[in-house]
Design a protein that fits this description.
It is a single chain. The longest helix is centred in the middle third of the chain and has 16 residues. 45% of the residues are buried. The two termini are 12 Å apart. The strands form two sheets. Strands 1, 2, 3, 4, 5, 6, 7, 8 and 18 form a nine-stranded antiparallel β-sheet that branches. A six-stranded mixed beta barrel has the order 9-10-11-12-15-16. The chain is of the alpha+beta class and 339 residues long. A hairpin with a 2-residue loop joins β16 and β17. It binds pyridoxal-5'-phosphate and 2-OXO-4-methylpentanoic acid. Pyridoxal-5'-phosphate binds next to β12 and α5.
Length: 339
């Protein structure tokens, strides 16, 4: 049974839930892990995660079904992406079995914190892999910690399915052959100042352009971008420096196979926004957040409306969220039932 909480008023904030999973990689192997109630990590001051950013993370959610059970959405994809991040940062991979077991144990142990069906809330799960131990040279850490913790969350951008506005940043979040395509803390550190500047101007967040030519949309600091054209095409940027969003790939599949849209992964030029009738940001935390308008230099471009969600975005949202909460049949292997 769920805890008593103001489920409808949840934002995207840290809440300490009772249990997290912690496992150490030592002497060249993953040691036995366990659930723990301690939310503090004690690590060496010389940990590579602190000095050289040798760390990566994931984000996924657990969804309360109408029958009271709990669904995970495509957790195997998060496991795969974590291991791509680990490989690029020269860290040991976390076996899929260990990843899924840790996630499942944490959700089960904190089941009372999975928000009720219909509240709009979900349980956000954060797997984290960090280099620890004594190492001051720029080298891979001698030891690693993998932890998974979770908390109930509401909408990431205020308003949820209500459109909000974004501004194009003059900064880059990732280099062309750098780490944009993996989920590492450094990308997010680089996005903090641009994000703050955008919020100070009353935008939800910024949109980054491709770091090589600054002519094409890459993504939002915390979500991928998509647009719907007048010809009913679902278009999303293709670039080696954006995070391969699991939500985005799910939407590409659903747009094509369930909504009958043509789908395109390609260039999205910032001076050609007129081709879109609707636009949105998509991700685990963002779900689908409609984009009202985009400020680019002195021009403010409105897509469908600054106050109302467009019809195609609404259909995509209903399909995706319906699948996640177990109301609509999922494509094979998209849902892992925790109970
Ligand atoms: N892009 C960035 C930079 C992100 O942080 C996220 C969030 O994980 C996404 C895109 C969306 O990815 P996903 O749909 O896998 O959550
Ligand atoms: C997610 O959607 O899981 C993210 O990681 C985005 C943000 C909270 C960093």
């Amino acid at each position: 049974m769920e805890k008593t909480m103001n489920w409808n008023e949840l934002g995207f904030n840290y809440i300490k839930t009772p249990w997290r999973f912690l496992v150490k990689w030592q002497d060249g192997a993953w040691q036995p892990g366990a659930l723990t109630q301690d939310n503090q990590l004690t690590i060496s001051e010389a940990s590579t995660a602190l000095h050289y950013g040798q760390q990566c993370f994931e984000g996924l959610k657990a969804y309360r079904r109408k029958d009271g059970g709990v669904n995970l959405f495509r957790p195997q994809e998060n496991s795969r992406r974590l291991n791509n991040s680990a490989k690029r940062l020269y860290m040991p991979e976390v076996p899929e079995e260990l990843f899924l077991s840790a996630v499942t144990q944490v959700v089960k142990a904190n089941e009372a914190y999975v928000p009720p069906y219909g509240s709009g809330g979900t349980l956000y799960i954060r797997p984290l892999l960090i280099g620890v131990g004594d190492m001051i040279g720029v080298q891979a850490a001698p030891e690693y910690l993998f932890t998974v913790f979770c908390m109930p969350v509401g909408p990431y951008f205020k308003g949820g399915l209500t459109p909000t506005n974004f501004i194009v940043s003059e900064y880059d979040r990732a280099a062309p052959m750098g780490t944009g395509a993996i989920k590492v803390g450094g990308n997010y550190a680089a996005s903090l100042l641009p994000g703050k500047e955008a919020k100070e101007k009353n935008f939800s967040d910024c949109i980054y352009l491709d770091p090589q030519t600054h002519t094409k949309i890459e993504e939002v600091g915390s979500a991928n971008f998509f647009g719907i054209t007048k010809e009913n095409q679902f278009v999303t940027p293709s670039s080696p420096s954006i995070l391969p969003s699991i939500t985005k790939y799910s939407l590409l599949y659903l747009a094509k196979n369930r909504l009958g849209l043509e789908t395109i992964e390609g260039d999205v030029y910032i001076d050609d926004l007129d081709r879109f009738t609707e636009a949105g940001a998509c991700g685990t935390a963002a779900v689908i957040s409609p984009i009202g308008g985009i400020q680019y230099k002195d021009t403010f471009h409105v897509f469908y409306s600054e106050t109302e969600v467009g019809p195609v975005t609404q259909k995509l949202y209903d399909e995706l969220v319906g699948i996640q909460f177990g109301d609509i049949e999922a494509p094979e292997d998209w849902i892992l039932q925790v109970n």
